[in-house]
Design brief:
Blueprint: E1 2-6, E2 9-13, E3 19-20, H1 25-54, E4 55-57, H2 63-72, E5 79-81, H3 83-91, H4 104-114
Antiparallel strand pairs: 1-2, 2-3, 4-5
Length: 118
């Protein structure tokens, strides 16, 4: 059996040359589970890379991280951002918003009315 893709249609050619526009349920299930396993593995790889690059844990022997956290005045928690990533975020401390630029006046009005210091 050969999988052939033409445009948006996927067809399965059998050894006798018959064309089927839909795979059998077992073929679809096998293809779907292979795709799901690859997708899950890719997501897991991303998650492990993110943790490796960005996170350190309080049970680690991380003297430099602890000293930098003390310098910043931050408490050490169970999971912490690595100080180099924390410094990166602190240096780019511009607030992030998905609010459209034309709505900035509305945001400013809300902040000035609702976020008054107590």
């Amino acid at each position: 059996m050969v999988l052939v893709r033409r445009g948006s249609a996927i067809r399965f050619w059998t050894l006798v040359g018959r064309v089927s526009t839909k795979p059998s349920p077992s073929e679809a299930s096998r293809a779907g589970s292979r795709f799901a396993r690859r997708r899950d593995q890719a997501l897991e790889d991303v998650a492990f890379r993110l943790v490796e690059e960005w996170i350190w844990y309080d049970e680690e022997d991380a003297l430099t991280e602890r000293a930098r956290y003390a310098h910043y005045g931050y408490p050490v928690r169970g999971a912490n951002l690595k100080s180099e990533k924390l410094a990166l975020l602190r240096s780019r401390s511009q607030p992030y918003s998905t609010l459209a630029p034309e709505a900035e006046a509305v945001r400013e009005a809300l902040v000035s009315q609702w976020l008054k210091a107590a």
